[in-house]
Design goal:
- The chain has 312 residues and is α+β, with helices and mostly antiparallel strands.
- Among the domains are: 57 residues, no CATH class; 41 residues; 106 residues, no CATH class.
- The chain contains ten helices and eight strands.
- The protein has an eight-stranded mixed sheet with strand order 5-4-3-2-1-8-6-7, covered by helices on one side.
- The protein starts with a helix and ends with a helix.
Length: 312
């Protein structure tokens, strides 16, 4: 009995440990923020340079991106392993070949002529196929002539049928076709109008308005959550027309209660130039995205709005 209790106790401790580890990992995934950081520099007459970094789970997962002009470099790493881009296999150097056993070198040397023979046989087969197609051009020309004769015969039959109709019958047939097409167009316009009125009526009812307000509220919260916590922006600009430079700077100053002078903008009334230096840093939590998705997914009004838009 004591042995059984000891086994049950050990099993319970192991299961509890595994369960606690799973809970800790889930909490880390949901609560650990994804840190992002980006910077960009552009000076007049120089190529733009952009750097971006994303770190997650104590820098276990790292994403790097660099762009200088049109050249781009990126990397995705998990711990010390590089996931993207995959490293290309380098050819064997002279030292590695010398380190190989002599049997391996002899085997590779024997495989190379075999591969060359296979490629030569394949090219010979392709040349035989093309030669067979070009040996009998008369057969091909006869087949094309028969096809053309058949098409000409069909055209003659159709021409005879058309000439068999009188001018009055042709006019009557054309009028009937036009009448049929016009009735179809009118039916489509009528049904489209009814569908549009029904769709507009569904969009203006109370449930649709509730769904739209919830979507707008979730979007505002999402943008507020992913906003950069730190940012810096320096812009020096100038146009050929100094009045245009002054108008833009005056509009920027009129929005001072909103930006509070954080973007540092310097106008240049003498030179035509543009210099930019930007930096931003922030973080995103997956638990926020998950709660917003669950709230929208299980909302009945949002589901109804999705079905209305899908089946319109």
């Amino acid at each position: 009995m004591a042995v059984l209790l000891t086994i049950l106790k050990i099993t319970g401790v192991v299961l509890l440990t595994i369960l606690s580890l799973i809970i800790i990992i889930l909490l880390l995934i949901l609560l650990m923020p994804i840190h992002y950081e980006a910077s960009g520099v552009y000076k007049d007459g120089d190529v733009p340079r952009v750097n971006a970094r994303i770190n997650w789970l104590f820098w276990i997962i790292r994403v790097r991106f660099e762009m200088t002009g049109r050249e781009m470099k990126y990397s995705v790493k998990v711990l010390w392993l590089q996931i993207l881009p995959k490293k290309e296999e380098k050819p064997d150097s002279v030292e590695e070949i010398s380190k190989k056993a002599p049997d391996e070198v002899i085997k590779e040397a024997e495989e190379e002529p075999v591969k060359q023979d296979q490629t030569v046989m394949q090219t010979l087969k392709e040349n035989e196929v093309t030669a067979k197609g070009t040996e009998n051009p008369s057969v091909i020309s006869e087949e094309t002539d028969t096809i053309r004769d058949g098409d000409a015969a069909k055209d003659d039959v159709s021409g005879k049928k058309e000439t068999a109709l009188s001018p009055f019958e042709k006019i009557k047939q054309a009028v009937n076709k036009f009448k049929y097409k016009f009735e179809r167009i009118c039916d489509k316009i009528r049904t489209g109008k009814l569908k549009a009125e029904d769709f507009a009526q569904k969009l203006t009812d109370e449930r649709t308005q509730n769904a739209l307000s919830l979507l707008l509220f979730s979007l505002k919260r999402l943008l507020f959550h992913i906003r950069p916590r730190k940012y810096r922006l320096y812009l020096r600009y100038g146009f050929e027309d100094p009045s245009l430079t002054g108008e833009i700077f005056g509009f920027y100053n009129s929005l001072y209660p909103i930006h509070m002078g954080k973007p540092d903008i310097e106008p240049d009334f003498e030179n035509k130039c543009i210099d930019l230096d930007a930096y931003l840093k922030g973080w995103i939590q997956l638990v926020f995205l998950l709660t917003a998705f669950i709230r929208l997914y299980f909302d009945k009004d949002v589901k109804r709005l999705y079905l209305i838009i899908k089946n319109r």
